[in-house]
Amino acid sequence: MARAESNEFPIGKKAPDFRLINTVNNTNLSLSEAKGEKGTVIMFICNHCPFVIHVNSELIKMANEYQTKGIGFIAISSNEIENYPQDAPNFMKQVAENLNYPFPYLFDETQVVAKEYDAACTPDFYVFDADLKAVYHGQLDNSRPGNGKPVTGKDIRSALDNLLENKAILENQKPSVGCGIKWR
Q1: What are the φ/ψ torsions at residue 117 (nearest 5 degrees)?
Q2: What is the pLDDT of residue 1?
Q3: Which residue pairs from 96-99 have beta carbons closer than 8 angstroms and sit at least 24 positions apart in sequence?
Q4: How far is CA 62 from CA 8, 83, 106, 140, in A?
C-alpha cells in the first residue's frame, strides 16, 4: 500500500466552505449546517483505504464522545470512482450504515473541496474552532496498519481537549499518513 503524508494547512486559516451530497440520506449538506457549536473535525476518508479501515472504530468512538461536547464531525470522500468504484456514493452509504457512522459521510465528486483543503491522503484530519479557524491538522495518533501500536486517537483528542478547555494550540502536529487521494 502506497503511503502519502498530509500537506500543510496553516493554523488559523478559515475552513473553506462547501455544500456536498450526504450519501447517508441523499441530501445536500453545507459546512455551516454540519459544524459543531464549539468546534469541528473534518476528515477526508474513503471506504477501501487500509489506513482508514484501521482507525474507523476510533473515529466512531471519538465522534460519539465529542459530539456531546459540541464538536461536529464531518467525513468526506474525494476519491474518483471510475477506477475506485468501491468508493462510490452507494457504497459510502452502505459503509456508513454498516458501521453506524454518527457523522455525515459526504461525497466530493468534483474533488474541489479536497483541493481547497489541500487534502493529500486518507485519512486526513482537520480540527477547527467555533469560528472555523484551524487549530490542528495532522494524524489521529501514531498507530498504522501493522505497526502494533494501539489506535487511541490521542493526537486529535489532545487537540479537541485543548480547544474545549481554552488551552494553547498543540505545537507538535505530526502529518497524517495514509493512502493518497485518488485524483482524476
Answers
A1: -90, -5
A2: 54
A3: 96/23, 96/24, 97/24, 99/56, 99/60
A4: 24, 31, 18, 10
Model-level pTM greater than 0.85?
yes
pLDDT bracket for residue 2 (50, 70, 90): low
Residue pair 142/178 in contact (Cβ under 8 Å)? The answer is no
**Cβ neighbours around 171 below 10 Å, total:** 6
pLDDT band at 3 (very low <50, low <70, confident <90, very high): confident
One-character DSSP codes across 10-30: -TTPBPPP-EEEETTTTEEEE
* Beta-carbon count within 10 A of 2 CB: 7
H or E, element range at 63? helix 50-67
Cα angle 12, 154, 117; round to 5: 35
* C-alpha cell recorded at residue 123: 485519512
Q: Are strands 4-5 and 134-138 parallel, antiparallel or unpaired?
A: unpaired
The class level of CATH for 4-180 reads: alpha beta
| Side chain identity at residue 4, one-letter code | A
Annotated domain spans of the chain = 4-180
> 85-120 pLDDT, tens per residue?
999 999 999 999 999 999 999 999 999 999 999 999
